[in-house]
Amino acid sequence: NIICSIVFGDRFDYEDKKFLDLIDWIEENNRLQGSIQIQLYNFFPTVMDYLPGPHQKMIKNFEKVDKFTTDIVMEHQKTLDPTCPRDFIDSFLNKMEQEKGNHDSKFTVETLSRTTLDLFLAGTGTTSTTLRFAVQILHKYPEIVGNGNKQF
């Protein structure tokens, strides 16, 4: 939710169906990434597009996550107040407006959608993996936690 508030400008309720679906799609893709079919897909995407396997599910999940972020970007475009940016998306949209006449600009809706998706996926994946690892270490080595009264 911290990443969501920075990128999307809003937090999601932990019972929100859309948010829970999003987390499920991301977690499922993380699990699928280790399969041999996914590894083969990375080397032979054109051939693998025609074959069944977990890579097809991963592609569908990615498309759902992409649609989720694209929908938020489109909503931000409709409700943008250039004088009061709410988040990363609004700031990017403001920069897009500044670069409107520049045909070489990289500030496009497509770039915004991809960057938003990258920030969200990288932020949530890295953070959750780090926290999981930290909890595992604390569980394995409870003496690290100690009694809380030691002076350092």
Q: Would you summarize the structure shown here?
A:
This protein has 152 residues and is mainly alpha-helical. The protein is built from seven helices and no strands.
On the 0 to 100 scale, the average pLDDT is: 85
The number of E-state strands comes to 0
Number of alpha- plus pi-helical segments = 7
Helix and strand sequence: HHHHHHH
Q: Would you tell me the structural class of the helices and strands?
A: mainly alpha
Describe this entry's structure for a reader.
This protein is 68% helix and 0% strand. It is built from seven helices and no strands. The protein has one domain. It is globular, with a radius of gyration of 20 Å. It is mainly α.
Give structural attributes:
7 helices; 68% helix; mainly alpha; single chain; 152 residues
Topology of helices and strands:
Layout: H1 2-7, H2 17-32, H3 36-43, H4 45-48, H5 54-79, H6 88-98, H7 109-140
Helix pairs in contact: 2-5, 5-7
